[in-house]
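Hi all, posting the design record for the shared folder.

TITLE: backbone redesign
STEP: 1 of 1
STRUCTURE INPUT:
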């Protein structure tokens, strides 16, 4: 579990690079990490996830430029969620797509929040890998994942086409929904339910506290990311609970 946390934190460190550079169309590999103000390259010992931020007290060693607390947050969050996945799935094959899904959703959460986009270059390969992994792990249930992905995609496509502009749904959300179905299978249902519930509550909260106006855009991707991570861990149990209540 400690190793899972450490590898998760290192992955989180890479996700920070993806979150910052991908929407700006910058190379993920070069140049190496550097301070945005003084351009001083970050030394390897100042680039250790979580630890370096604390050692540097959140400032560039060279010029004192504040470093965003988002970096250690993403690293800690990724490590922590990887550990939760390890507890939920054990050291078994389903852990691998779970770790991938968590990482992808953390990147999408922040990129959509900042830029209102959900990059195809993340979602499309992840969708293929997610479906392939689930089909390989449970070949008897392959159709569940296909139906879940296509169903979720068609549902979001219908919303986007019926309420263009008004719903805040874009085609990025359609592709994301499809990807989530491929990963979650039946758990996509509680996942989407949770996404809409969290989105509605957050929307009302942001309106009431005046942080967002009636007309302002609120991206939906972050809510799908939160709802789907909960569904990844508890979706099957929620689904059983609902089916039990319906009988
Ligand atoms: Zn600097």
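Okay, here is what came back for every position:
SEQUENCE:
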């Amino acid at each position: 579990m400690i190793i899972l946390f450490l590898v998760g934190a290192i992955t989180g460190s890479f996700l920070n690079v993806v979150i910052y550079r991908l929407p700006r169309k910058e190379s993920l590999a070069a140049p190496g990490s550097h301070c945005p103000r003084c351009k001083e390259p970050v030394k390897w010992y100042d680039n250790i996830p979580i630890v370096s931020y604390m050692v540097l007290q959140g400032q560039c060693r060279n010029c004192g430029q504040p470093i965003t607390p988002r970096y250690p947050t993403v690293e800690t969050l990724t490590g922590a969620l990887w550990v939760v996945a390890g507890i939920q799935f054990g050291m078994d094959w389903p852990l691998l797509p779970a770790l991938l899904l968590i990482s992808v959703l953390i990147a999408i959460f922040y990129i959509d929040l900042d830029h209102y986009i959900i990059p195809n270059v993340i979602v499309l390969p992840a969708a293929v890998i997610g479906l392939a992994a689930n089909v390989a792990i449970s070949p008897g249930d392959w159709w569940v994942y296909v139906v879940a992905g296509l169903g979720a995609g068609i549902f979001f496509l219908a919303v986007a086409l019926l309420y263009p502009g008004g719903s805040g749904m874009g085609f990025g959300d359609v592709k994301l929904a499809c990807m989530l179905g491929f990963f979650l299978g039946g758990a996509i249902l509680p996942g989407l339910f949770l996404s809409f519930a969290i989105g509605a509550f957050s929307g009302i909260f942001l309106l009431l506290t005046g942080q967002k106006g009636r007309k302002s855009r609120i991206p939906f991707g972050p809510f799908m990311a939160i709802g789907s991570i909960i569904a990844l861990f508890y979706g099957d149990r929620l689904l059983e609970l609902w089916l039990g209540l319906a009988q």
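COMMENT: The chain has two domains: 1-91, 93-247.
Let me know if anyone wants the other runs.
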